[in-house]
Amino acid sequence: MSILSEFREFIARGNVVDLAVGVIIGGAFGKIVTALVEDVIMPPIGLLTSGVDFSHMNLVLKADNPATKVDEMVAIQYGAFLNTVIQFMIVAWVVFLLVKGVNTLRRAQAAEAAESAPPPAPSAEETLLAEIRDLLKSGR
User: Fold this and answer.
1) What is the Cα Rg of the chain in Å?
2) In this structure, what CATH number is given to the domain that contains residue 120?
3) Would you tell me how many other CB atoms lie within 10 Å of the CB of residue 64?
4) What membrane topology does this protein have (predicted)?
């Protein structure tokens, strides 16, 4: 088997295609969540905190030197980290709701399939035991 045919077989598997679709959708979804957090959620939070913009909050470890006009500032960007944590929580919540909805649909479909499916035929052992029971009841 050539390496190209092996690669073709690998790509044709359903899991690889599903994973690729998931990554692409996840990337697009990440952009939506970023916009939601930065443009919708954070402004009201900033308003509640007297106009504080979390994305610019930082702890300066070393300030710029205006004499050299070189950007030497070293800072811990905890505001950007807070934004990222909020984005993660939103993504996690939405994924939870999505999985919960899918599980509810699957349970409903499984219950519907179980109700509509005819009961399984008895096995050979069950049939034999039923015959023995019937013979014992009849007294033979």
Assistant:
1) 31
2) 1.10.1200.120
3) 13
4) Multi-pass membrane protein
- Tokens encoding 80: 């950007």
Distance spanning both ends of the chain, measured CA to CA:
66
CA angle 60, 48, 96 (to 5 degrees): 90
Q: How many domains does the chain have?
A: 1
Among 33, 84, 31, residue whose Cα is nearest residue 55: 84
**From first to last of its 140 residues, what are the pLDDT tens digits of the chain?**
789 888 888 777 767 778 888 889 888 888 887 788 778 877 887 788 777 677 778 888 888 777 777 677 788 888 888 878 887 888 788 778 888 998 999 999 988 888 887 888 889 999 999 999 999 888 76
Per-residue tokens: 76:
């811990």
Which regions of 54-97 does DSSP assign to beta strands (E)?
59-62, 74-76
Domain of 123 in residue numbering reads as 3-138
> Which tokens in the block code for residue 93?
């919540």
